[in-house]
Amino acid sequence: KKQIDTSDLKSEEKQVLKYIQEQKAMFQADLIEKSNLGKVKISRILDRLEGKGLIERKRRGMNNLIVLKD
Length: 70
What we know:
By secondary structure, the protein is of the alpha+beta class.
């Protein structure tokens, strides 16, 4: 398992990243459900994580599949 530097992440970002790491990949809708954060909030967190090169969003129809970047 690759170690990710989370020192510059906010607590919510760390939490979301932890969920993704546990599942390896998950749909954005499942992430919203699991984290109890709003759609917009999750979307912004994922934007930041993607910007830092930690995750990748893959479009799957109406859903986004969130995967860890290698």
